[in-house]
Amino acid sequence: MKKLLPAFAYLFHPILIPVYATLFYFIITRNFFYNHEIYLVILQVLTLTVLLPGSLYYLLRSLGIIQTIKLNSNKERRLPLACYAVLLMLLLRHGLATFVIPELYYYILGVFISILMALLLVLFNYRASLHVMGVVSLTLFIISISAYYHVNFLNLIAFFVVCSGLVASGRLYTKSNSLGEIILGALIATLPQLLLWFIWLVPVF
After folding, report:
1. Residues 166 and 11: beta-carbon distance below 8 Å
2. Which terminus of the chain is more exposed, N or C, with fewer CB under 10 A?
3. DSSP assignment letter at 13
């Protein structure tokens, strides 16, 4: 367990979650899109949520603005969170907005709102677990796609619920987050996604 629990933190690192969600979405809906549309959206998501944030991290570290990838202090979290929010806004306004993919659009919008909430908490000297925020939002996205397309993903949902628990346990085990930060991370992931369901998911029923 000493090696397993920390491994989940790397597997479900927050910046990887939007890519996981995008890949999952197109695996389910690939018959509704042309291949070039799928590749373009995946490339946009990968660039704006993984490659650019990764490059930004190394830049900030080389400048001495942040010390580790864990972003242990609230002061270190402010600029990376703000920059990530800007990148998500660019993805929403100039990437996903050009395609008719409301499910993915509203999921990323929910993540954007969660990041803003995490940034707001940091400004008031509170921390939320970004790892828990990411994996919980992904779990909710899978649930929403299951409901939207009337496909039974019960086993997959159960798997990601377990993964959410393991990520949370790993963060507690390594003392990377407190229980309060775990709960805050889950809350700021859940609230935006649930509220946005009333815009795109609930009207379907």
Report:
1. no
2. C
3. -
Residue 42: alpha-carbon gap to chain centroid: 15
What is the mean pLDDT of the segment spanning 94-106?
86
| Confidence (pLDDT) at 1 | 63
Token pair of 185, please?
């991370």
pLDDT exceeds 70 at position 46: yes
pLDDT digits (tens, 9 = 90+) for 125-147: 999 999 999 999 999 999 999 99
Please choose, from the candidates 128, 135, 107, 100, the residue with its C-alpha nearest in 3D space to the C-alpha of residue 195.
107
* CA dihedral sign of residues 27, 101, 89, 121: negative
H/E run at residue 66: none
Contact 138, 20 (CB under 8 A): yes
* Cβ neighbours, 10 Å, residue 205: 6
Cα separation, 156 vs 159, in Å, equals: 5
